[in-house]
UniProtKB/TrEMBL annotation:
Domain of life, source organism: Eukaryota
Keywords noted in UniProt: Glycosyltransferase, Membrane, Transferase, Transmembrane, Transmembrane helix
Record-level Gene Ontology MF annotations: UDP-glucosyltransferase activity
Segments passing through the bilayer: 12-36
UniProt record similarity statement: Belongs to the UDP-glycosyltransferase family.
A Pfam family matched in the record: UDPGT
E.C. number(s) listed in UniProt: 2.4.1.-
Coiled coil: none
Name of this protein: Glycosyltransferase
InterPro entries: UDP_glucos_trans, UDP_glycos_trans_CS
The keyword Membrane is annotated on this UniProt entry: yes
Length: 504
């Protein structure tokens, strides 16, 4: 344990992620990078239930000699009307979504108290918590906004917000070009836009507030690497922020170093430490060890997205008909209740036994994607998932569902050309408008990746492997992300020294 004098000499940085697994994991990754640097004390600020998700990672950081401290604050369950223990977006039912939105706003007072009481030297906060910029300015410390989605999606959403071009198309399914972007031209339809751009909601009301807070902050950190989104990073840098550091893929930084240390860390990221999580981890990795290189398709749609029974049945039949081995993660129901199996076609589990593994709940995605047995990734196009897929050199079958995922898909399919859509029919970010994707479409998309040399699938595999090398170079010493990390840390140290000099 460091002495009080030693701690006072360290740069104390707080990391405050949003209440969602896809935000907490990269924030923890970033905090770990800071903690590994000499002279820095990194603290992640979480509510109790969310802290449980990263307990193994916190313990791992301690045993590795670079501990990330944990500071807890109570989730405003009572004030927002949410049941006790429901503190993460993935656990919130659709009926309680408005209460969750209230809980976000009710967190402001807790953040204010924590920052004033502990007075860190700097704070890195999720963009959702826009008020932290003002609190930090009031107590005289730099506030860095943290974006867990890439520059491509951010720039496109800002362009649509400014131009309103999507409001002038004749229908939700009428394609239009997003203006003001580099080649290739990005075409999309209104039905596939984030909901805040389609109807008024909490994000619509606060979008300008978020952007203003970003512009007033010390700068922005984006979980990406410059080479991946070069032109979009430049566009992002020129809008809404004083400075921008592109530090990613954050999960790939954790791959550097000792093999056993890395394997253990990646397998534990974000799952918690319950018996079910440990069992799933062991099942997945043990099953993959028995498979040939590149023979398995990993099917996973993140911690928040879910499907109705009819769609799950079609998916099961499509995966079976494709003939490819698969590891399929099926999300648990709201509040973690036991997953039903009525959706499974009769005799299906027996027919795919040995060829397919169905995992209910959580699975160690980063470790699975890094495994050599995995050859294809069917994904919802969440930004963390795309980065993990690219970092591991996996081509993708894209099946976006919500948020900015349909925009991310354009990057994968049209710009990088490392993926193909599962379904070319009508798609929507509104749950009530979603159509069931038939088994035949799923089978057809999978078979594109099973064809031999010289085919579309083979070309995508080559490009994906190239991007994995570029991503690895970005996080290596001297790489673009490594340099941006050093630059940010150096600037925060300089701000502290300047503040000390001015106070004397």
């Amino acid at each position: 344990m460091a002495s009080r004098e030693e701690r006072s000499l360290k740069l104390r940085v707080f990391f405050i992620p949003f209440f969602a697994t896809g935000h907490i994991i990269p924030a923890m990754d970033l905090a770990s990078l800071f903690a590994a640097r000499r002279g820095i004390e990194a603290t992640i600020v979480l509510t109790p239930a969310n802290a449980a998700l990263i307990r193994p990672t916190l313990q791992h950081s301690t045993t590795s000699g670079h501990p990330v401290e944990l500071l807890l604050f109570p989730f405003p369950s009572k004030a927002s009307g949410l049941p006790s223990g429901i503190e993460n977006l993935a656990a919130v039912s659709s009926e309680d979504s408005s209460k969750f939105t209230k809980a976000i706003d009710f967190s402001r007072d807790a953040h204010d108290r924590l920052l004033r009481e502990h007075h860190p030297d700097a704070v890195v906060a999720d963009v959702h918590f826009w008020w932290i910029t003002g609190i930090a300015a009031d107590i005289g410390i730099p506030s860095v906004c943290f974006h867990v989605i890439g520059s491509f999606a951010n720039v496109i959403m800002n362009q649509l917000w400014e131009t309103k071009v999507h409001e002038n198309v004749p229908s939700d399914s009428h394609p239009f070009i997003v203006p003001g972007l580099p080649e290739p031209k990005i075409q999309i339809v209104r039905s596939e836009l984030p909901i805040f751009l389609r109807v008024r909601n909490h994000f619509t009301d606060n979008w300008d507030v978020y952007r203003r807070a970003q512009g007033e902050s010390f700068g922005m950190v984006v979980n990406t690497f410059y080479e991946l989104e070069r032109e979009y990073c430049e566009l992002f840098r020129g809008v809404d922020c004083k400075k921008a550091w592109f530090i990613g893929p954050l999960d790939l930084f954790s791959k550097r170093g000792d093999h056993d240390h890395v394997h253990k860390g990646k397998a534990e990221r974000g799952g918690g430490e319950s018996a079910a999580v440990v069992e799933n981890r062991e099942r997945c990795m043990g099953w993959l060890e028995r498979k040939k290189v590149g023979s398995v398709m990993f099917v996973c749609f993140g911690s928040w997205c879910y499907f109705e029974d009819e769609q799950l049945r079609e998916m099961a039949l499509g995966l079976e008909a494709s003939g490819m081995e698969f590891l399929w993660v099926v999300r648990t129901g709201d509040h973690g209740e036991h997953v039903k199996t009525e959706w499974m076609p009769e005799g299906w589990e027996e027919r795919v036994k040995g060829k397919g593994l169905v995992v209910r709940g959580w699975a160690p995605q980063a470790a699975i994607l890094a495994h050599e047995a995995v050859g294809v990734f069917m994904t919802h196009c969440g930004w963390n998932s795309l980065l993990e897929g690219l970092s591991s050199g996996k081509p993708m079958l894209t099946w976006p569902l919500v948020f900015e995922q349909f925009i991310n898909e354009r990057l994968v399919v049209e710009v990088l050309k490392v993926g193909v859509r599962v379904w070319d029919g009508f798609r929507s970010t509104f749950e009530k408008e979603k159509v069931v994707v038939p088994a035949e479409a799923i089978e057809r998309a999978v078979r594109k990746f099973m064809e031999g040399s010289g085919t579309e699938g083979e070309e995508m595999r080559k490009r994906a492997a190239e991007w994995a090398e570029i991503a690895g170079a970005a996080v290596a010493e001297g790489g673009s992300s490594h340099k941006d990390l050093n630059s940010l840390i150096d600037e925060l140290f300089m701000v502290r020294e300047k503040t000390k000099d001015e106070s004397h």
